[in-house]
Amino acid sequence: MCGGRDHHRGDYTPQQRADLDVVLAFNRRMSDAINEGLDVLATEEFLDPDPVRYMWVDEGQGRIPLVIAEAHELLDRAVHIDGHQRRGMRRIEGSSHAARPSIATAADGARLTSWIEWIPGQGDVVRARYESTGGGLSRQEAVSGSVADVFRPTSVITSDGVPWVCYGQSNAGQVGVWATALASDGWSEPLLVSTSEHPSFNQEVVAHADGSLELCWQGRQKDRFGIFSRSHLDGVWGPTTMVSAGVEANVWDPSIATCADGSAAFAWSEYRDGAYRVVVRRRDAAGRLQEPRDITSGNDYALHPNLAVTADQQLWCAFDVSSLTGHGGSGPTKLRPTAEVGADLEVVDGMRHGGDSIPPELQPHVTASIRVVAICRDGVHEPPGELAPRLNVVPSGLPKLVASHDGGLAVAYRLHRRLPLMTYYWEVATQVLTADGWQPPSTFSGTDGTLEEVSIAACAGGAVIAAQTDGRLQTALEWTEGFGGRECPYLLEHQGSVVWHGIHGVGTVVTSEISTAGPVPVVDATLGGAPGVTHIHSDERLESRRWLGDTARERYVARVGDRDYTLYWGDLHRHSLVSRCSAGDEPSLEDFYRYAWDVCEYDFWAVTDHSENSSDYQWWTIQKMADLFHVHDRFVPLYGFEWTSADTGHQN
Question: Pick from 76, 111, 131: which residue ends a domain?
Fold first, then answer.
């Protein structure tokens, strides 16, 4: 009879049992070191990707005890990260299958938290928890109507105290942005607000000083995406404006911030000339859009911009910079032009040598950093200090800014933790900007989960954060399933279920508060009067996509008899960071779809994450993301998974 995750320990050889005990004991020590605030980066880098990256399927080649002993020696020398603080979180009751929390606050102290709540076997709803000033009124309920596929809610409270929740939702296969508001008689009937084509999603929402609400979102226009905006005032939604009008490139990741004079700023990530750039566009108080302005340059990918305006009306932008070498982050290919047949296969552009236990294609070649800049007329300025010092933010940190009531600025992001046995997870970190630059980070125990953005909002004395945790660390510290490459021996009991025994659980919403450090200094004072730079330039990525160039590519069409046949391109086997066959170096599901659309120029695409290391919820999410990006005659995602067995091999 199926016993859950721990089928095989009784079947292991004595050596396998001993190796497993050695690894699990080390993982517990590593977890304790993280909670003590020790610098474990050198230990992580030693363990990933070689030589024990694949030892959970017994590819340690008898070296596991020696490698773990060396890792212990590195951990013995670990020191505390200067100034680092370790904090805890509080759980929100009733969030038992939760994802994507968003938190908003009002000047009087009211709070609104919304999140996706998954109902197993049925679908999603958006739940919201509203707490009025002083805790007088507290209500928590589903606000999105019937069960459906829903996406990434955003919370806001207007300047006159009205709570709103906006979210993406699928209706008859068409995804749009919906909105609902809380009145004295309860939450209003959800209303479809977006007016662009499917899919319309990825919305952000802000409150203006005049009591109005402004929503911006990413929506499709023919074969690419644009950024759109729409405002609500006095009970009426106004006309839709295309904020990215005049931009020919594909755009993602909208962000919006408002200024005291009624003007606003927008940001997005734009795919152009083989790279992603962060672009900012201002709109003056009269509603006139200014010319878009690049704030990044180079060959690396600048992604996930987020805007904030501090009390001195300075505009700030946070974003990720990722260097993904090769084919959309998937590694260089050994496919060669026919003229190169017979050439040395060990010499491949952009490919490193293999490791002790894994081939070169599976070695991660990804670096990432977080940047925060002040955007001024003369350029962009970076405050002194280091963001994410001695911390790993691969493949991205998804930074979020908040301008605090005391005139300060803080950033929240995700950091990547990696242990042996393919144990990886992401935690929350925050940093505060002071007159001397960035303070050292605070990291938060109890936030172990997947790579999912943090939400942050201003509150009295600082800021409040909300995040999802799925408890995967504790599960991983007890994990034995799959050691030695075995799968569940009781597959028939699962009645054909695609996924089972996942180490990644469903989530709970957790919150915490941080203190800020008062007004940020004016930019010139922060930087000692140094002039700004035109762009943040990053150019580390090695390009191995031979088809990239300035010449427009045409589809190959062949005529046979009286019929035309078109050649379409795609990929039917690709892993995201869901799969435990890497150490979480692969992109998130959302970013993988953008790379498939933009970088690889695919017509069809399948994410085939490992079913034996996944969960029912993740399988639901994989299907939901495929449906989100399904655009007839443009991009066709397919449902997919990999079922790996020591007896029958890898089945996709």
Answer: 76
Q: What is the CATH number of the domain that holds 597?
A: 3.20.20.140
* The pLDDT value given to residue 476: 75
Return d(Cα 639, Cα 145) in angstroms, integer.
27
Measure the CA angle with vertex 455, ends 510 and 437; round to 5°.
Answer: 110
The answer to whether 181 touches 161, Cβ cutoff 8 Å, is no
Distance CA(304)–CA(255), nearest Å, equals 9
**349: phi then psi, degrees, rounded to nearest 5:** -55, 130
Contact 261, 225 (CB under 8 A): no
Task: Check residue 164 and give its pLDDT.
Answer: 98
| pLDDT score at 500 | 42
Positions of the chain with pLDDT lower than 50, given as ranges: 1-3, 51, 54, 57-58, 327-334, 484-486, 489-501, 525-529
Asked whether residue 454 is assigned to any structural domain, the reply reads no
- Is 567 inside any structural domain? yes
Tokens of 278: 């962060």
| Strand intervals (E) in 208-338 | 213-221, 224-233, 236-237, 241-242, 250-258, 264-272, 275-283, 293-294, 296-297, 301-309, 315-324
Q: What is the pTM of this model?
A: 0.93
537-554 pLDDT, tens digit each: 998 876 655 555 666 667
Is 176 part of a structural domain of the chain?
no
Would strands 636-638 and 604-607 be described as parallel, antiparallel, or unpaired? Answer: parallel
Q: Is 529 left (phi over 0), alpha (psi -120 to 50) or beta?
A: left
Q: Which domain holds residue 50?
A: 9-76
